Amino acid sequence: MQLPFELPRAADLSDPALTRTLQHQLDHKTKPLGALGRLEALALQLGQILGTDQPTLQAPQMVVFAGDHGLAARGVSAYPSDVTWQMVENFLAGGAAVSVLARQHGLALTVVDCGVARDIAPRAATPGQPQLLLHKVAPGTQDASVGPAMTAAQCAQALHNGMEVVRALPGNALLLGEMGIGNTSVASLLLARLCGVSLQDCTGAGTGLDAAGIERKRAVLAQALAANATATEPLAALAALGGFEVATMTGAVLQAAQERRVIVVDGFITSAAVLVAARLQPAVLQRCVFAHSSGEPGHALMLAQLQAKPLLDMGLRLGEGSGAALAWPLLQSACAVLREMASFEAAGVATQGG
Known about the structure:
Layout: H1 16-27, H2 38-50, E1 61-67, H3 82-93, H4 97-105, E2 108-115, E3 131-134, H5 152-167, E4 173-179, H6 183-195, H7 199-202, H8 211-227, H9 234-241, H10 244-258, E5 262-265, H11 268-280, E6 288-290, H12 297-305, H13 322-340, H14 344-347
Parallel strand pairs: 1-2, 1-4, 2-3, 4-5, 5-6
Helix pairs in contact: 1-2, 2-13, 4-13, 5-10, 6-8, 6-9, 6-11, 6-12, 10-11, 11-12
């Protein structure tokens, strides 16, 4: 699929000298070697992303991308499409899980209408309150079970919108969230198409389907794969099978990666956007911290495809960015340990055998 603009390029972050410096600092903190476990690996990664041995996370941005899906009319979700716009209003009113967690952890919350079926009323930005950005490509995608979910032009617009969203936001950390009834179907379709994973293995209950509902969902998704059999390249698959929120998020990930922002990936749907972005620019994954492994069966399979090790495993399957927000304090702790924890020499503490 040809785009009328160039996608941001994510440069390889490999810097052997910086990596040696970071590892030396971690190894000489006042602790047994490797005693902080995966927190040390996280600190090393954050130093590599930000290009310093004194990493500081600044003005973190939680962005929730919202859109509706034509597939939802086929009964692939336990909830009606109206829940998408209702939850967007809940985010903005401060009542959703991600709203609560963003407040708790000092994360600026932005909600992006990428393609919600109902128009969301614009409102003035208020200090300390969630920000709403209107980047609606169309009021929901088409039904992918009978043809492409979006046109090439619509997909390109969504990608560009995501790039513009990130360019306008401050800070050096982007936390990904999403909302869209039917979007676990999109994630399953992209995993099946781009990674060859069977729908039987990667399709789950989503918002709460029973066993019969899951079988119905699998049948509909099989129809979508068949109806878009020629869409095999990453961008073509995204346009044919994806959602406006996933495409917008893909553009945001590519832009954030180019800017060397830390990208905190939430669950199954946000990982699907990262999967597409990484197929286009593999170095994107160097910037990604995967917050958790969700209860959706396809997510573990997608994490394996991405060779990602999530920080948490709590059975979460809400989405919204809730898992990314819960993992955020671990990133803060990793940076603080690297910056502030004393070395054996500075603290006057004897080393092993000393």
